[in-house]
Every structure is written in structure tokens, then in C-alpha cells.
Write a structure and sequence with these properties.
The chain is mainly β and 159 residues long. 8% of the residues lie in helices and 27% in strands. InterPro entries: Adhesion_dom_fimbrial, Adhesion_dom_fimbrial_sf, Adhesion_dom_sf.
Length: 159
């Protein structure tokens, strides 16, 4: 606004034709990045079920714990830490990871509850949930004798 425009506005306001007020606004802040985290120092976590009987897969037998540790750099803000297991679910169980055998899955459990794949769970760094896995089969399926594998990504990240 030029000087003569300000004077004209002042003159109008002083004779009662204008009643307004203005103030400048400023905005500022700091963008922060969440601290980095690692799981088991970036090493692969392997769970070996050993020999599994094709007629003994029932979602209970062969249950194994998944040992892992999460390490995160110190946080300057109260970030929410989330844990997820990302992979391809079976067509018969959203908490079971598809294996190389079509009718066989590996169900994930967190604190004895099904842990849905690709679904983040809010956790506390000081007490992450206990994870377990167990082989499950598609209802009504007959499993063939075969080697099986499955791959997933365990991800811990701040939101």
C-alpha cells in the first residue's frame, strides 16, 4: 500500500466512512524428522519350523517365537512408534503370510492375538509386543509333502 493510499484510507476512516482494523500475521516453526530405528541391527530374522507333518498343521502345533529387538535414536518429540509385518496374506487368513505351498500359511500372532499383515500397530519402544508364528492350512485342503518358505518385512517406524 502506497503512502497516499494509506493517507486516503486514514481520511475515510477518520470521517466515519470506514471502520476496520488490520494486523500482520507471521507464522513459523521447525520441521523435524523422526529418529531412525533398526530391528536386530538390520540382520535377517529367521524362524525354522524344522520338519512339519502335513497332517499335523492345525494352527497350534509348531508355534514359534520371533525374537527381535528394536533400537531407535533418541526422539525430540513425542512420536508414535508403529510396528507392522508387511507381506502377502493368504486368501483364507488375513493374519497368515502366504508360503511357497499354496494351501499353507504362516499365521502371525502378537501377544497371543492375530496380527493382521500390512496393518500398523501402535507400540511402546520399551515394551514391544511378543511376536509368534504358527503354520496354518487352508480349511479342507490336503497339504503335499514339500519344502516351504515365506518372506515378510518387519517394520518399525515413527509416525
Amino acid at each position: 500500500m502506497t503512502c497516499w493510499q494509506q493517507r486516503a484510507l486514514f481520511a475515510l476512516c477518520s470521517i466515519g466512512l470506514c471502520s476496520s482494523a488490520s494486523a500482520n500475521l507471521t507464522f513459523s516453526g521447525t520441521l523435524n524428522e523422526p529418529p531412525p530405528c533398526t530391528i536386530d541391527a538390520g540382520n535377517t530374522i529367521e524362524v525354522d519350523f524344522g520338519d512339519v507333518g502335513v497332517k499335523r498343521v492345525d494352527g497350534v502345533k509348531y508355534r514359534r517365537g520371533v525374537g527381535y529387538t528394536i533400537s531407535c535414536a533418541p526422539a525430540t518429540l513425542p512420536w508414535v512408534l508403529r510396528l507392522s509385518v508387511n507381506g502377502t496374506p493368504t486368501g483364507f487368513d488375513a493374519a497368515a503370510l502366504q508360503t511357497s505351498v499354496p494351501a499353507l500359511g504362516i499365521r502371525l500372532l502378537q501377544n497371543d492375538q492375530p496380527f493382521l499383515l500390512n496393518t500398523p500397530l501402535d507400540i511402546t519402544l520399551s515394551s514391544p509386543p511378543a511376536l509368534e508364528v504358527v503354520p496354518v492350512k487352508q480349511p479342507g485342503a490336503t497339504l503335499p509333502p514339500a519344502r516351504f518358505t515365506a518372506v515378510a518385512t518387519l517394520l518399525a517406524e515413527y509416525e
